[in-house]
Structure prediction request, 92 residues.
Amino acid sequence: MAEPVHGESSWDKQGRWGQRDFTAAVADHLDGKALHHNRWETGRVVVQSLLGAQQSIYENTKIDFPLNFNDAQWHALRARLLAEQKAREAKA
Prediction:
């Protein structure tokens, strides 16, 4: 699993102005003025695209949406890719 990256955020650097900006953004969202970029409607499309790419690799063909890529297929793909990687490393 990848290790998370930690560091200063803009909140840390902006101090009270960062809090003001954050509060204003939340208020705008709650009032229906602006949609947050990191929301279900946009995130879902990204996840579906990535899973679609994985299913396409698993089936070695183009796939159609909606997806039907299940956990067992994902685990089989992961095992296959790890075995291929190990074989390439053994040749090197």
